[in-house]
Amino acid sequence: MLTRPLLLCASAALLAFPAARRDSCLRPARAGTQVQGDVTVCPGRYRIADPRELGVLVVAGSGTRLNLTGVTLESGDSVPSRFVGAGVVSYGLDNVEIYGGTIRGYRHGVRIEGGRGHRIARADVSGSRSQALRSTPDRYDEADWLDIFHADTAELYGGGVLLKQTNGATVVGVSARHAQNGIGLIGARNTYVADNDVSENSGWGIHLWASSQNVVVRNKAHHNVRCESPAYRRGCDSAGILLREQSDSNLVADNDITWSGDGFFLSGQPEYVRPSQGNMVLRNDGSSAYHNAFESTFSHGNVFLENRADSSDYGFWLGYSTGNTVQGNIILGSRSVGIAIEHGATNRLLSNLVMGGKTGILLFIRDSNGPASRDYVVDGNTIGGVTRGLVLRRTAHVRVRGNTFDGVDEGLVVDSTGRDAQVTVNVFLRAQQYFIVAPELTAGSNYWATATEAEAAARVKGAVVLQPWFPASAAGY
User: Fold this and answer.
1) pTM of the model
2) 198 and 144 in contact (C-beta within 8 Å)?
3) Which of 79, 244, 346, 391 suits a disulfide with 413, CB 3.0-4.6 Å?
4) Can you point out the beta strands (E) in 333-420?
């Protein structure tokens, strides 16, 4: 565990400086240099190690403004897995402002713990600590798997910026690239994280632990990935944006999280972390994820609205999730499934466009002893160019209304558990094999791309009732 330095001790390692005059600037010479007031560090390059993890610049008073414009602060160590210490630290203070400069070669570029009203702007904290990867292009090593279940491990991993137990902080215009992690929030609330570049890391671009009511918008968090090779595909829980342990009521919007292990990853796995609820995930692009463009597990009440999830293994994977809304998303060319939910309940899938891939939407269970899959609303989706459109496997009480199935091998596939599904006002257009496959199902009041009811009945497999039957032309096709 990292130890918190005693800022007011009489240690020789801590040098106290008064607030800088407007016509003066500070030239730090060693770790533990205290700063307070309105401080400008003289432009230049400073190579200062921090082996005792004191912090090179230690903020010692609330309201401090630290100007690092034109400054490069580096540890001098060249092995990223051995980086320790921090460029700038603050503990228990309010309204600390840090802007400008380049900080690299430490466990954390900037670490702020406690207090409110902090601001970090226009800083380059790329090149922080990162683990040495043991996997090679030909061989995967289990040791590279990330620990998403413990906050202290995330602290040890390091990153460009860490905010811990803060309230009302702002992080804008920061670059935190080419390391393991970019920006981390642990127990942080009401944080504004916007317009930062946290791409091309080997772990997480932005990660939240027990952090609620934050706004994470317009960040570049692409290509955050590990454990991927032409010879294997693991991901090792890397992600563009990661939420866990009761990170509730956050707004995550307009972020570029493409080409990551997972684009967006929310984990609430019992016995390890508690669910994260009530998050709004809006207009993000998670395309080209090696695994899931959007993953949200063991959680309740999250909303996924108008996101992009193209060319990933799964567009959305929402295992064991309840009460979620997935609406207005575009999911093109999934390698496996557009939207997949195992052991889910009371979820609403509305007005999504799912095109290309093996299966459009899959609702299912795989463990007979697990929670039931039930009580879905699947309305207004357009599903096309897939082998199977909507699959209900051991899933009961589903409303399937107003969807369009086009260019599918099989449109709607339902087993005996789903025989009570309400299937109405859907449009069944081109199907290579069957419009519907079900042992028993009532599917009246739908629209069919056939000239007669008999022709539609010939393209249905099982005891499926089609009356009343309507031609697709009656729905405008």
Assistant:
1) 0.93
2) no
3) 391
4) 337-342, 348-350, 353-364, 373-379, 382-393, 395-401, 404-406, 408-414
